[in-house]
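S.,

As promised, the magnesium ion run. Input:
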Amino acid sequence: MAVNVEIKSFPLFINGEWSPSKGGQLFDVMNPATGDVIAKVTSGTAEDVDLAVKAASEAFDKDDWRDMPPKKRSKMLYAIAQKILENAEELVSLEALSSGGTVRRLGSNDIIQMVDLFQTLGKFVLDYTYSETLPSPPFPGPAHNFIWREPIGVCAAITPWNMPMLIATWKIAPALAMGNTIVIKPASYTPLTTLRLAEIISEVVPKGVINVVTGSGKDVGEPLATHPQVDKIAFTGSTDVGRHIMSLASSTVKNTTLELGGKSPSIILEDADLSLALPGSLFGVFLHSGQLCESGTRLFVPDQLYDQVIDGLKELSEKLVLGNPIDPATDMGPVVSATQKESILSYIEKGKQEGARLICGGYEVNVKGCEKGHFIAPTIFADVTNEMTIAREEIFGPVLSVIRYSDVDDAIRMANDTIYGLAAGVWTRDVNKAYQVVRKLRAGVVWINDWHMLRNDAPFGGYKQSGIGREMGKHCLDAYTQVKHVHTSMVPEVERRSWYSLLFSNQSK
Ligand code: NAP
Ligand code: MG
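Predicted complex:
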């Protein structure tokens, strides 16, 4: 795959066109593999947010958009999918250069998932239950009642840097499928693909339906979360910022969905097939250098298998190839930034200080040709207890904590002993045992003998402090609608409206 990107400056994308900021400066977007500046992007301001929200609000008020017939909307979603396919190579390159994701993963997974989500929702909108008629009640009098599902209005999306274009799609696709309009604030490390995606999508949808305001959380995210004309906020990011967004959104009582952090447990049972469980556990934690919210970062291993599992994990981890993400031979790219690298290294230090045993990795790697990149070797700690910092806090890097157990109930108790509840997994040859464990695990997705397997027609989201609401699946369409109950009285004579006696005591019968 050719990867040539000229360094250019990106204005904001508002009302279907590139718009310079009202006062904001430019900031650099870097390639985390090389440290090179790859683009300049605008630091938006509250005034820019206001313009984008107004454009989205005007676009929402147009009946052609809001009340588009499902068949037409379905065609539109398929047309967007087609546009993404046509621009796939460029999107994958931009994403690899700015996020550090490997072209192998982006080209064969993320871009396909994006296309498929628009197509899946293109199917769903055809038979979605937009209205439901209720049976007419005989008492207190006949009536016709129905429930309408309507779009919410202007949605604001605030997205993280780990899978920027896929996570933006998880919000854009259902918002547009249900007739909303959207303003997106991408993460400052990785705004490029969201900007380009908006430009591509705007070739298919009316002006103002999709807008992007880049800039910091404080200058752009906060004004979005408090803007009175924003009806819904859909946030993906850390639990700390999620809590803050929720409190900001409360000032105008916004509909709020949150996809937050995780510290997902993976339990190997005694009868597990280790030829699956070992590579599967590493796939679960080291994909995208551990920067995936659903990563399986705590691995629970029974006494009997402990040494064998540790040896096997070490051997497989040491074979992983770190390199430039644009090289298809690279297994693991860099982490997203110097700050993220320092944070991961300080967690590794903490693990050592608190008594965990470092099995492999634990250091920064100097990759030839990428000397200024932010690479960390796949790191495994044994003898971790569930109380240690590395087992409690989300590290968001390539660090696995292996925790020993003697009794399965105890493993389940420790697995659930976390503020998070995004994902979990169990490895066993016995499906009945698996279901018993799955039933007790408090997480929004549980894998049996696998990891990371998300589907566009199945919901994804967190229990506990991993979030509120679900993305993908039919559930995501519900999340971008609100319901209206409409009552039509079928009792034309006032005398027969017995319920009016609740107010009028002398009403003649
Ligand atoms: P983050 O620091 O929480 O940032 C997420 C987004 O919020 C970014 O666009 C950020 O902008 C913005 N933001 C920061 N401070 C803000 C504020 N005060 N007001 C409004 N917006 C603000 O998360 P991250 O570091 O980008 O991503 C890593 C986190 O995302 C991890 O915790 C991970 O688990 C979580 N995540 C969850 C899922 C999921 O589906 N559950 C998926 C992916 C990632 P700037 O970039 O400008 O700071
Ligand atoms: Mg951050």
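The first helix runs from residue 46 to 60. The chain has two domains: 10-260+463-485, 265-448.

- D.
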